Amino acid sequence: MKGLPEERTIRLAQYIIEENATVRQAAARFGVSKSTVHKDITTRLKKLNSVLYEGVQQVLRTNKQERHIRGGMATREKYRAQAEARQRRA
User: Where are the alpha helices (DSSP H) in 1-90?
Assistant: First the structure.
């Protein structure tokens, strides 16, 4: 989603809050870079809408606290899939 930065910023913020999404998920959903999402929701949003800004910051804090868990789960899934592939070949 290209277009007006202000409009994009508000839509990104609403999406992140409604879906409890990460910056990476929001970037993929809207077709922009993670850097763009981060700049929009930290710099632009603070100037545009302080209520949305606080909501997004709360979601981002939660995501930051949980990221080590998500990373561990992704690694676990990767090795499980590799083990299954080895078993199928054997």
Answer: 5-19, 23-30, 34-39, 45-48, 50-89
Helices (H), 31-49: 34-39, 45-48
Farthest-apart Cα atoms in the chain, separation? 59
Q: What is the pLDDT of residue 30?
A: 95
User: Tell me: the pLDDT tens digits for 37-86?
Assistant: 999 999 999 999 999 999 999 999 998 888 778 778 889 999 999 999 99
Is the pTM here over 0.85, yes or no?
Answer: no
Tokens of 25: 């998920």
Q: Which residues of 1-18 are buried (b: 16+ CB within 10 A; e: fewer)?
A: eeeeeeebbbbbbebbee
The whole-angstrom separation of Cα 26 and Cα 2 is: 13
Per the structure block, which two tokens stand in for 18?
Answer: 């409604």
